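FORM 12-B: Structure-to-Sequence Request
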């Protein structure tokens, strides 16, 4: 898979994270009941970046958790006979809180739906919001992000690659061709 374009460099990602953090603070009139939950894998470092920016702006820590949606996916049987489970760590109650799910890319909406199901199994949040670094379109479910870093129109034969320092040694977003008929 060859990268054909760089969509965002590190500074563009940080500007998007800053904007998302400010929008979360504004929309929720502060961060009193806000809890961030990063969706495994790349949503986790993005949630931590947003939490750090909120701390910088508001002077307060926002509890941040980690969510693995593997067993909530509607395509689990098609993924692998032995799916990789990365683990969930939500060390705070979600009931009556404002939960902001954080992920790198929204495509069909199925990951977001699975994450909502997983959160609902842990309690009853007052509100669930969705923060996404890249919205690439092609929704199959009626789900939209509340906070979007960048809208990137793509074809189904393209893949958006979000790279973060924790896993890839660099913060950037690229676009690649994956060939006809394949889905990411």
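FORM 12-B RESPONSE
SEQUENCE OUT:
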């Amino acid at each position: 898979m060859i990268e054909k374009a760089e969509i965002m460099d590190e500074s563009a990602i940080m500007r998007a994270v800053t904007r998302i953090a400010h929008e979360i603070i504004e929309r929720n009139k502060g961060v009193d009941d806000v809890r961030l939950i990063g969706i495994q894998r790349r949503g986790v470092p993005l949630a931590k970046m947003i939490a750090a920016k909120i701390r910088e702006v508001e002077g307060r820590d926002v509890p941040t958790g980690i969510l693995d949606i593997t067993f909530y996916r509607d395509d689990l049987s098609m993924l692998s006979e032995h799916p990789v489970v990365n683990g969930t760590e939500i060390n705070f109650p979600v009931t009556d809180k404002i939960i902001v799910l954080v992920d790198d890319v929204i495509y069909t909406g199925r990951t977001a739906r699975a994450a909502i199901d997983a959160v609902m199994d842990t309690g009853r949040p007052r509100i669930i919001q969705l923060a996404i670094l890249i919205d690439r379109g092609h929704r199959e479910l009626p789900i939209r992000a509340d906070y979007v870093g960048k809208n990137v129109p793509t074809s189904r034969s393209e893949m958006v690659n979000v790279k973060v320092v924790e896993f890839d040694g660099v913060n950037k977003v690229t676009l690649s061709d994956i060939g006809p008929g394949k889905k990411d």
